[in-house]
From TrEMBL:
The keyword Nucleotide-binding applies. Gene3D superfamilies: P-loop containing nucleotide triphosphate hydrolases. It comes from Micromonospora pattaloongensis. PROSITE patterns: ABC_TRANSPORTER_1, ABC_TRANSPORTER_2. One of its GO terms (molecular function) is transmembrane transporter activity. InterPro entries: AAA+_ATPase, ABC_transporter-like_ATP-bd, ABC_transporter-like_CS, ABC_transpr_LolD-like, MacB-like_ATP-bd, P-loop_NTPase. It holds the Pfam family ABC_tran. The keyword ATP-binding applies. This is Putative ABC transport system ATP-binding protein.
Length: 236
């Protein structure tokens, strides 16, 4: 029976490209940040973007996440062209399907860790009881339940970054974008944050694009894509 085999290959979600960039160009004035960058992300996989400082990793990540609009080329999520969407539709997509972790936790300083983690759930109109349950679960999983009612300045950098990971993944986004998420941490805390990020992504079947200049971190990814001068090494 050939047909069922063919069908099972077609629907094998492992090979489903959830996000792609093709020939993306971006300049800031005269500075060329991206010069024809291309990458594909399979559903449920972790892709590490590595490369020297200034090679265009963050610029590509922001284009993939719909935070920057490239000058040329295409970004597709689920086959849909991001630059074909209205600004409203793009921000709906970011709120519902995307999560972000940056180098510095960038939590809201006036809010407690618990309140910070609940933010994406409020934006996505989760009911109060579901919200509480989800936030409690994440606080436990990331081992920051004892710090739940403190504000970001009242916890360590590692704890704040764990809260940022919880916030990024709380609404179970399909994509998680992380820009040097452990770059500001010592190696012990960096490893804890990285493990929890990868673990949570796996549990939630979230695809990850992870920017790092650390090859040890990149080794934890399913795929490593190296950038140089705004494009993929090997494509010049
Ligand atoms: N907001 C900006 N304004 C002007 N130039 C920028 C800006 N952001 C990045 N660049 C430049 O674009 C290039 C790529 O930067 P970036 O994407 O931040 O690289 P990476 O994340 O790999 O360090 C660099 O030359 C950088 O100086
Ligand atoms: Mg960067």
């Amino acid at each position: 029976m050939v047909l069922p085999v063919v069908l099972s290959v077609i629907v094998d979600r492992k090979w489903y490209v959830v996000l792609s960039a093709r020939d993306v160009g971006l300049a800031y004035g005269k500075t060329v940040a991206l010069a024809g960058a291309s990458v594909t992300v399979a559903e449920g996989s972790v892709v590490a973007l590595i490369g020297a400082s200034g090679s265009g990793k963050s610029s590509l990540l922001y284009c993939l996440a719909g935070l920057l609009t490239p000058d040329t080329g295409e970004i597709r999520f689920d086959g849909v062209l991001l630059n074909g969407l209205s600004e409203d539709d793009r921000s709906d997509l970011r709120r519902k399907d995307f999560g972000f972790v940056f180098q510095f936790a960038e939590l809201v300083p006036e809010l407690t860790l618990r309140q910070n983690i609940a933010l994406p759930l409020e934006l996505n109109r989760w009911r109060r009881s579901a919200r509480k349950q989800r936030v409690d679960e994440l606080l436990e999983q990331l081992d920051i339940h004892q710090q739940a009612d403190r504000r970001p300045v009242q916890v360590s950098g590692g704890q704040a970054q764990r809260a940022a990971v919880a916030r990024a993944i709380a609404h179970r986004p399909r994509m998680l974008f992380a820009d040097e998420p452990t770059g500001a941490l010592d190696s012990v805390n960096g490893a804890i944050v990285l493990e929890s990020l990868l673990q949570l992504a796996k549990v939630n079947r979230t695809s990850v694009v992870l920017v790092t200049h650390d090859r040890a971190i990149a080794r934890r990814a399913d795929e490593v894509v190296e950038m140089r001068d705004g494009r993929m090494v090997g494509s010049e």
